[in-house]
Automatic annotation (TrEMBL):
Protein name according to UniProt: Uncharacterized protein
Phylogenetic lineage: Bacteria, Pseudomonadati, Bacteroidota, Cytophagia, Cytophagales
CDD domains from the UniProt entry: CdiI_EC536-like (cd20691)
Provenance organism: Hymenobacter aquaticus
């Protein structure tokens, strides 16, 4: 299944002029390209982008969680980028997927306790500050699992 693209998995098609690198915004072009790319070829950056766009979450969120379990601060444009993309999802997403939320909550708890020890973040005060702000938002959106 993951060797298919989001377009194939969701039966989605682009209904506007095909974007290109020169005449489209980064977001529009990347959105189009990633919908055509097989999900199993996604990088952490690709996963972070799709999660931020809330597109194909049924397929990309479990992949992202799998990566985050082994490295919560994996780089996706910056160290911790994939984690902040996942933690930045709205509460309604987590309410629809409590099993995924429970996995992310464990990752979050471990990451929160180890933020100061992440080698890739040493000296990156602005990034650490941003990650902390995302942590606070996530904590305030805690979902009560049933």
């Amino acid at each position: 299944m993951n060797n298919k693209s989001i377009s194939q998995l969701e039966g989605w098609s682009w209904n506007q002029p095909i974007p290109d690198e020169d005449n489209s915004s980064y977001e529009e072009y990347n959105f189009y390209v990633l919908h055509k790319k097989p999900v199993n070829e996604y990088t952490p950056e690709d996963l972070g982008f799709m999660i931020t766009q809330e597109s194909g979450l049924k397929y990309v969120l479990p992949l992202a969680i799998g990566i985050l379990k082994s490295n919560p601060f994996v780089s996706a444009n910056y160290p911790g980028g994939l984690l902040t993309s996942v933690l930045g999802l709205p509460k309604t997403i987590w309410e629809q997927s409590p099993h995924l939320y429970n996995e992310v909550k464990i990752i979050f708890d471990n990451a929160k306790n180890n933020l100061e020890n992440v080698e890739e973040l040493k000296g990156s005060y602005r990034t650490i500050k941003y990650i902390r702000s995302v942590f606070i938002i996530f904590q305030n959106n805690i979902v009560i699992s049933k």
